[in-house]
Structures are given as structure tokens and as C-alpha cells.
Amino acid sequence: MLTLIRIEWRKLKSFRAFWILWGLFFLVYGGMIYTINGESFQVGPANTSAVSMGLMSFPKVYQLCSWLVRWMLIIPGILMVINLSNEYNYRMLRQSVINGMGRWEFLGSKIFLVLFLSFSVALGVGIASLTTGFLNGGLEDDQSLTENMNLLVGVFLQACFYLSLASLITVMIKRSGIAIGVLFLYTFVLENILLPRINDDWQTYVLPYENALSLVQNPFATFLPGLFSVPSMQWDHIGLTVLYTALCWWGIYGLISRKDL
């Protein structure tokens, strides 16, 4: 496995687009938090802000930063699409199999990459949460630094599922441009079209991406009229996210076992 990790690292180390997109992810994400930190908006007759709501302070800052990252997952998703499509476009997967690498080993290297990227996303959210929280007053006597920190696990699971979905789409299509388009449509269009057609009680169970997103609920829901607040990190959604992620990799293995490399 260490050999596979080293091979994957060598591929990424010289891949300039990977580092540009990865840097863009954290730059735009940090910009979103900075903008919200200084933004005010109307709630009923009064102006308010995320700061006055306490969302930029501990412990609520974890929920805000964890919720915001959902809008940015498309970038690491594109990274996985490019990485996997290159395996086909440059015949690297075929050459690896010819050189003696098993398909399970190839799969293991990509699962490692998904775990690494997902951990990096969760770590970035954690650092952003801590930085924002300390810049907005730090800890008071009745506050806990670790309360709501479990939401970072939710971010990790969300990212794992989304990158696994991106991998499945890429292995099915092989062409990066089309795969990115399909991933974008699924993320921002398809499930949103299906949502109103599914009973409210089943929406977050039947739709895989919606289920993963439900691990971190909207932090504004308790403040804004018309938004319904439910608890984050419910065990049924955690279990389903893990299941949907495993199904993605089961599908990927089935495809690379049967398809011509």
C-alpha cells in the first residue's frame, strides 16, 4: 500500500492543475467566510448579521463553516474527475495493470486519494472555524472549544461521498469534460428537480447527495422565517452516507473489472 501511495503522490506532485484548483478551493472558501463575517441582511424589520447571531463565535462557528463548504465540494470533485480521467486518457491504468498492479490495488490508491482530500477539506474547515472563532472574541467562560467539533466528521463524510460519486461518474464516462458536466448537473440541478417530487419524510434518505448534506444543517434555520431546523449528524444519515459511499466504490470496481482498460 505504501508503494501505491508513493505512486499516487508522484502523479500529484507534478500535476500543476491539481495544486491550482486546490489553492483556489481554500482561497474562495476563505473569501466566503470573510464576506459573511462583514455582511448584514434583513430579518423581519431589523438588520442583523452572522456576527450578531453568534454564528461567527464558538461553538456555532463550526456549524457555519461546515455548512458553507458544501458549496465548494465541486472543486475537489473536479480534481477527482481530472485525476481519474487522466488514468484512461494517458493509458496509465492499463500500463499499471500490465506492470503487475491488480485492480484492487488501483482501487486502493484512489480510495486513499479520496480519504486524503476529504481529510484535507475537514482539516481546512476546522482551521477556518478556529481562526474565525478566535478572531470574533475567542472563548468565554461558558463556552467550549470542542462543542460542535463533531460536525467536522460530517464534513469528512460528505466529502468522501461526493468524491466517490465523482469517481464513479468518471469511470462510467472516462471523458473529463463530460464527467464534470454530469457531476455539475447532478449536484446543482438533478436532485433539486427531484426534491419536490419526493415525500418530505423521504427526501434526505432517497437522494444520496441530499442525505450527505443533511449531516450539517443550515445554521441560519433557527433565525430565518420559513426555514425548518433539524439536528445535524443523525445516525441514520451517517449510516446511509457510508452505505452510499461504499456503493459508489462497489460500482467502480464492477466497471473496471468488466470494461476494457
Question: Could you outline the blueprint of secondary structure elements for this entry?
Answer:
Elements: H1 2-13, H2 16-38, E1 40-43, E2 46-49, H3 60-68, H4 74-89, H5 92-98, H6 103-135, H7 151-173, H8 176-194, H9 203-206, H10 208-213, H11 235-258
Antiparallel strand pairs: 1-2
Summarize the structure in words.
This protein has eleven helices and two strands. It is mostly helical. Strands 1-2 form a two-stranded antiparallel ribbon. Helix 2 (16-38) runs antiparallel to helix 4 and helix 6 packs antiparallel against helix 7. The model has no long low-confidence stretch (mean pLDDT 85).
Q: Briefly, what is this?
A:
The chain is mainly alpha-helical.
Task: Name the features.
261 residues, mainly alpha
